[in-house]
């Protein structure tokens, strides 16, 4: 295995790690958005019942 092959494998490994982190962040963002929407809907229902 040449030094070029080793460097390309390291680059691939780093890129995969970056992609994994990006996917995890996107999942967390979507979960946050879902919780936020749920809370807004819950509060809206509460205000509609109180009004």
Describe this structure in words.
- The longest helix is centred in the middle third of the chain and has 48 residues, at 3-50.
- The chain is 94% helix and 0% strand.
- The chain is mainly alpha-helical.
- The chain starts with a helix and ends with a helix.
Quick recap of the structure?
Helix content is 94%, strand content 0%. The protein is mainly α and 51 residues long.
Mean pLDDT, to the nearest integer, reads 92
Q: Note the main sheet.
A: none
So what's the overall shape?
rod-shaped
* Share of residues in strands: under 5%
* Helix proportion: over 70%
| Strand-pairing-aware structural class | mainly alpha
Taking all Cα atoms into account, the compactness measure Rg is: 22 Å
Could you tell me the number of beta strands?
0
Number of helices: 1
Distance between the termini: 73 Å
Low-confidence stretches: none
The helix/strand order is H
Q: Keywords for this structure?
A:
51 residues, mainly alpha, 1 helix, rod-shaped, coiled coil
